[in-house]
Hints:
CATH architecture of the largest domain: Orthogonal Bundle
Radius of gyration: 23 Å
Mean pLDDT: 91
Shape: globular
Largest sheet: 3 strands, antiparallel
Helix content: 55-70%
Order of helices and strands: EEHHHHHHHHHHHHHEHHEEH
Strand content: 5-15%
CATH superfamily of the largest domain: Fido-like domain
Amino acid sequence: MKAEDFKRFCPGRLEPIGGGHVAFVPSELPASFSCGADLLTQNDAALLALGELRAIVPFMPNPELVTYPFLRREAILSSKIEGTHTELEQLYLFEAEPRESKASDSEEIKDAREVHNYVVALELGLERLKSLPICSRLLRDMHAKLLSSAAFDRGQLKSPGEFRKEQVYIGSHDIASARYVPPPFAALDELMDNLAEYIHSKPKYHPALVRIAVAHYQFEAIHPFADGNGRIGRLLISLLLSSWGILPQPLLYLSAYFEKHRDEYLQRLWLVSRDDDWHGWLKFFLQGVYEEAKDATNRAKRLLGLREEYRRRLQGKREPSSALTIIDSLFRYPFITVSDAAKQMDQSYNSGKKNIDKLVKAGILSAYDDRAWGKLYYAKEVLDVLA
Length: 387
């Protein structure tokens, strides 16, 4: 990282770390910038799109019909930004038969487990919000879940649940040519305490979505962990949307937008540090909220419409309520076996088989494999909505 790249008025300071190298230490929050008319207009458009998404919630018979699949889609896309590639089917299949981490696991299994850990980390964070404010402790607990299998899966333990105790750098295998060098580890506690203080303060001049964008930038600039900072930083966005009551359910995730515009996402964060370009980052972030709120609204409507279509197919044939109950479970987990169906309804295996056969006949389920015993079925149309 070159000191001369940073403008004199950048929002931070350069600190020598030895060997002729410097690290960037972001200024404490609140950040010093003003929201012009264009940003406020864009913020209003994003809030309107979020309002349309909120309006769907009262029509959900069970919010989990949408929140479960949305969270898994987010986990896949957020992990993809970091180079971990898993398809939605692979994640669901892993969750159907989770396994302990082993050194002999294939890369496919390691990727699926890593993405599943993202789901577990956010679920933990949302649950802890009921009794714990957003703070370093909460983020460390989520990080511990996120990297719980790092020892076997990626060959090196990355100190799950702990702030780093070493200098790291980003964008290169060599600190001399690194694009960004985060603060020295001795500064982490103070910077993270300031971030928590900012999150729990109520500045008069910056709208909530702008403050979330600022908090995300600050976390990424601090880079408190040895690994997993990008994913925890994106999880922080979801926590803030929930904690601040912007959405009553975890329905909005920005990783799809960030992954689609990955290069610009990283560049916008970098330009805040280098040039104090808050305006460019905030416009990019608010556009992401707008686009992903619109997309989430559309997908939620499609999922709920699909559920009603499935129920019409069965009710027209006077099928028992047990088959209707299984339908709802398919929106949480689109894969199912006969044993799963029997267990869900506390029925015999034969009764479970009858219900599965009815769903296959109605075009709701299809056989996923050719196994004679333990055959897996799936709701392809549900997966298609999320793809």
